[in-house]
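Continuing the batch. This is chain 6 of the set; chains 1 through 5 are on the previous pages. Same settings as before, nothing changed between runs. Recording input and output for traceability.
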Amino acid sequence: MSWVALVEDERDFRESARDFLVLQGLQVFEASHAAQLAHRLTQSPPIQVVVLDINLGEEIGFDIATTLHHDHPDVGIIMLTGRDTTEDYLMGLSAGADIYLAKPVDLRILEAKIQALLRRLHTPSTPHASWTLNRNTWNLTTPDGDNIPLTATELAFLTMLAESPGVPVAYANIVTIFQDPSDNDIHRASVLLNRLRQKVMNICGARLPVKSARSVGYSFTGSLHLA
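Output for chain 6:
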């Protein structure tokens, strides 16, 4: 049985969503603020997906998502918000959201997104099998043989990680891949990684084994072969 945490301070919507999701066979934990979620995440059975409203009174959902993604990288995150600008969408991806939905949301769509994310999360992973980065074809090949086409920036980013196996590549080095470095480069690196993670998930349903070392940089935690 899959457990979903619904973090929403609007009581009517939270209870309606809870009732609907339970009818679809999901187990739902309700929370109105981050402290309740944090406590539940230390308990069993584990939460697999968190549905998180961006506006939780004085709490900022983007900050909660960033902490959640860092401390519980195996938990899927769906962000709900009344904000639907491109900048908000990019901030959501940067914070670690797997899916970003604008309110009002049809509960049938929310349930479908949760089920799709659960399927991705339940896909067996092979962390010790080798990924291959082909710098001639600009492709990343998964251990299962799926090919992910890369942009020049994505290729440069993964090449840096491949050349430093198991060791975080510093943000100061990562920002050099951008043609127009600026004060916002660390944020851009985070957006780049989250877009790449989303691309890999969309194409083959696998999680890209890249880990964030807070205030340091990024490392590839699997085996990545350069070709």
